[in-house]
Amino acid sequence: MAHAQEIQLQIRGIPDEESVHEDARDEPKADMRRSTRVSFRWWTTVVVDMLMVLCGTTVATLLGRLYYNSGGNSKWMATLTQSGGSPLLVVPLLMTPAPSAEERRPAVSKMLAVYTGVGVMIGFDNLMYSYALQYLPVSTFSLVAATQLGFNAITSRLINAQRFTALIANSVVVLTFSAALLGVGSSSDETSSDVPRGKYPVGFVLVLAASAVFALILSLFELTFEKVIRVRTARWVLRMQMYTNLVASAVSVVGLLASGEWRTIPGEMASFKDGRARYVLTLVGTAVSWQAAAVGVVRLIMRVSSLFANVTCTLALPLVPVFAVVLFGDRMTGIKVVAMLMAVWGFLSYMYQHYIDGRRAGNAECHVCATRARSDAVLPA
């Protein structure tokens, strides 16, 4: 009789009680599988972006130091290489899918204001980095630049309403002391022969100022995506990067012409170590590397936050000083080792906070996966 009733229920399209329970048991498993797939996809794309930032930042910083070590002396030319590769982004931009008819389009006037304002800031920030890179050993430059994470924690809190936890505060304090330690020990720092003597304090102040401005720029990028653009596509990542860097390049070209440094470029090229070809390759390699790193940073800002993107930049800290010791003869003093370890500790503090947030979300994926899932559907790796 029970079997006959079950057959009748199935004929009528009404599930029996046992099948309902089986479906209910299967639903959590299906949700877990979907969550795992989303988490894996999200972390895969984030890791790709992080590799772009790490490789681009490391190579660009080393090539920038090589430019000065091999006879280059134009600050504005070094500044131009940090944004001059932006026209290369036209190629991937043309390869991205055209926007749909339903896609929201921000006002042109607002975007022009964003491109101009942020682009000018990038141009002068690049100039400060160029001066600092000439006045400091590349290992010290990289370690002091770690303070941008601390500055970004402040700007993210004020501009992007980022949570400021005890672990993030610890990261800020440790990185600040790391930079201060380098400043106190500057008098005993035996820099390489290619670094101007007596310019250490100026370079130290410039890289601190540039780090603060860079942190502000990242927060403004995040604010633009949240409040102005309001869409998360690969096309807008490339647009933001290309147009702001074109403005920054225009600032660099104006500075190059106004300062008269353009007159020294032919002689600089002729006297460059190993010839003109290496001069051109060094500048081109620097420009391409900076663009790769910048695109990765903007993508991370879209996927996660400006603070996460800045944390990724600090991950290059253990790499640049080691390569600088091998390539440029920078001396890895005890003070630099301690400062580097403190900087790494600051990075790990933030990453542990990120891990805790993910556990509190109640699943294996990062806590931002749910909020960024929609953007992942339109922003390919």
What can be said about this structure in brief?
With 381 residues, the protein is an all-alpha fold. The chain has helices spanning 2-12, 17-69, 75-81, 90-95, 108-135, 138-144, 147-160, 166-184, 200-229, 234-259, 265-271, 276-303, 306-314, 319-328, 334-360, 369-378. The chain is globular, with a radius of gyration of 25 Å.
**Strand content of the residues, in percent?**
under 5%
Principal-axis shape equals globular
Structural Rg: 25 Å
Average pLDDT, all residues: 79
Give the SSE string: HHHHHHHHHHHHHHHH
Q: Span between N and C termini?
A: 58 Å
Unreliable stretches: 9-14, 362-381
Main sheet attributes: strand count, strand direction, barrel closure: none
Q: Provide the structure class.
A: mainly alpha
- Output the number of helix runs: 16
Helix content: over 70%
Descriptive overview:
With 381 residues, the protein is mostly helical. It has 16 helices and no strands. It has helices spanning 2-12, 17-69, 75-81, 90-95, 108-135, 138-144, 147-160, 166-184, 200-229, 234-259, 265-271, 276-303, 306-314, 319-328, 334-360, 369-378.
Key traits:
381 residues, mainly alpha, globular
Topology:
Elements: H1 2-12, H2 17-69, H3 75-81, H4 90-95, H5 108-135, H6 138-144, H7 147-160, H8 166-184, H9 200-229, H10 234-259, H11 265-271, H12 276-303, H13 306-314, H14 319-328, H15 334-360, H16 369-378
